[in-house]
Backbone:
């Protein structure tokens, strides 16, 4: 449980999609492009895509194809998705209300910031540098073939190591059950962000330390 008084937290780890930035429209467009390339009618709504994301692009595609695409073809579809998504990455993406002010507050107080995402690493870096600026965050790590994806704690642990912080000195902010489980697996306090891609009920079922419904609450936890 997070206690705001006498806080010893020194770092904040953030998920990207659905937590810092709304990216669902372009993720859906890239997925629809892949479906059409395979002769499949893209029947999914934006609400569907919100439910599909969170475990990486390959899992997103697997869900969009209703688990019917063979593994070998899924890898080819992933390559197609990544090329298309990289083209439209920033067409509709925007930073959620209150995020910039919250981050500036933390930075002014010396809180170290990291992004830990299942978004492909190159896409994540490009988005972050465009929307927030180069070197705005102290550490950024996205998905690569070499590292395990969330909810495995590996990337969160790498972030802590690079920030020079212990698990007990960090708070992990995310919009999905995947983020909550990642935080728990790494021994970090977890905060569910209800403005993102998952429902309040989904976040609640993962039992985060607390659920917040506005970015204005972020600085109040430090």
Residues:
């Amino acid at each position: 449980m997070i206690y705001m008084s006498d806080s010893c937290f020194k770092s904040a780890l953030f998920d990207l999609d659905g937590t810092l930035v709304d990216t669902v429209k372009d993720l859906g467009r890239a997925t629809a492009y892949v479906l059409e390339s395979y002769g499949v009618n893209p029947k999914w709504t934006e609400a569907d895509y919100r439910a599909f994301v969170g475990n990486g692009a390959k899992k997103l595609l697997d869900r969009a194809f209703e688990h019917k695409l063979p593994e070998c073809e899924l890898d080819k579809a992933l390559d197609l998705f990544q090329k298309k998504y990289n083209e439209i990455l920033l067409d509709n993406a925007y930073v959620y209300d209150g995020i910039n002010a919250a981050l500036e507050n933390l930075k002014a107080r010396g809180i170290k910031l990291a992004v830990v995402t299942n978004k492909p690493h190159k896409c994540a870096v490009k988005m972050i540098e465009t929307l927030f600026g180069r070197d705005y965050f102290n550490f950024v790590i996205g998905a690569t073939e070499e590292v395990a994806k969330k909810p495995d704690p590996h990337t969160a642990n790498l972030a802590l190591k690079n920030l020079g912080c212990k698990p007990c000195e960090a708070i992990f902010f995310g919009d999905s059950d995947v983020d909550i489980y990642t935080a728990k697996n790494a021994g970090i306090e977890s905060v569910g962000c209800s403005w993102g891609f998952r429902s309040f009920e989904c976040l609640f079922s993962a039992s985060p330390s607390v659920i917040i419904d506005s970015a204005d609450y972020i600085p109040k936890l430090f």
